[in-house]
Amino acid sequence: MLQHAENPVEWYPWCEEAFKRAVDEDKPVFLSIGYSACHWCHVMAHESFENQDTADYLNDNFISIKVDREERPDIDNVYMEAVQAMTGRGGWPLSVFLTPAGLPYYGGTYFPPQTQGSLTGFFDLLMAMKHSYEKNRVDVDEITGELQSILLKKPQIAQNSDTINPGLMEMAFANIKTEIDPANGGLGSVPKFPEPLA
């Protein structure tokens, strides 16, 4: 929060007050999760959160919450899992749009300030998320319901297993291998984030 104190965005920490205001004003919540050593978190902060026009739009149409994943890994885990279920990818900054009840209806990671080719710009995304929340509430409720159903059905991993199934490891490697970018390195396409688990 201290790193973002000078942003023109009216950030709230994760607190009841923020969600109460979202309910009272019937506004969606924009949740930004990052950490101090995250390069793309700083890039997005500089490009979007320090931009007065973007901040004004956020302040007028959303309740904005900033979370440090190192201070609140519990919150990060919940919303990272939701974004991964929605997009198949995750990373930081984690950018999630929530209902006033805290249910995610869209999310992603870094968004450039303006749309660039197939990458949606943050300002365009804000307008689309506001429109979805205000004009397509049935769709938003359907998305949040489906997402809850998916996350509740997700199998839990045994915590204290002494053995690893070799077939599972081979399958995991085969899946990761399809994501390798042999020309530029890393996994997947731009923007690329370090994926230590992979």
In short:
With 198 residues, the protein is of the alpha/beta class.
- For the termini, the CA-CA separation is 30 Å
Across the major sheet, the strand order is: 1-3-2-4-5
Our count of helices gives 7
User: Could you spell the SSE succession in H and E letters?
Assistant: EHEHHEHEEHHH
Poorly predicted spans: none
Beta-strand portion reads: 5-15%
Could you name the key traits of this structure?
198 residues; alpha/beta; five-stranded mixed beta sheet; 7 helices; 5 strands; 45% helix
3D architecture notes:
This protein has 198 residues and is α/β, with parallel strands linked by helices. Helix content is 45%, strand content 12%. It is built from seven helices and five strands, in the order βαβααβαββααα. The protein has helices spanning 16-25, 39-49, 52-61, 73-87, 122-135, 137-153, 166-177; strands at 11-12, 29-34, 63-68, 94-98, 104-108. A hairpin with a 5-residue loop joins strand 4 (94-98) and strand 5. It is globular, with a radius of gyration of 18 Å. The two termini are 30 Å apart.
